[in-house]
Amino acid sequence: MNIEKDKVVTIDYSLRDAAGKLIDSSDGGEPLVYLHGNSNIIPGLEKELEGKRSGDTVNCVIPAVNAYGERDESLVFKVNKKEFGNDTEISPGMQFEARGEGGSQIVTVVEISGEEVTIDANHPLAGETLHFDVKVVDVREASDEERQHGHVHAGGCAGCGCDCGEECGDECGCEEGCADGECN
Predict the structure, then answer these.
(1) What are the chain's domains?
(2) Higher-confidence residue: 18 or 183?
(3) What's the whole-model pTM score?
């Protein structure tokens, strides 16, 4: 089965920066499972995987514009230390979730100078060219629920987290899943 929109894809991968430094890897952990064509991975990697099959390998270089975007210096700004709360210890390198008009995003503390805190709202890999080594482990049909929600649900059942490969119900003994359109 080929990788195409609304297929569930399982990959093993390693990600390196332009200097060859390992940034992330599934080695020693779980493979990455995602719903193809639903913006669940960076666009450049998704394009490189299109049409591949289980067992295929992909070695590719993804420019920043097709990964996490170019750095935007307007996303580096100063806030008052009080914005973090009175009891919060902060130091350079710490990351926080900030909520704004566009939803929530991760911001990184860059510098602290007195009561001024410089934060960077760029993705940590913004501006980086990314080097991927990927092995396609599996490609399968998505469940109706996964297609509807736009992401993969845990395990083999539609949202229950077990690994029986069946739909949730008596055969599987699952009691969890997605209710009222929200994934549990």
Answers:
(1) 7-67+127-152 (3.10.50.40), 73-120 (2.40.10.330), 157-184 (no CATH)
(2) 18
(3) 0.76
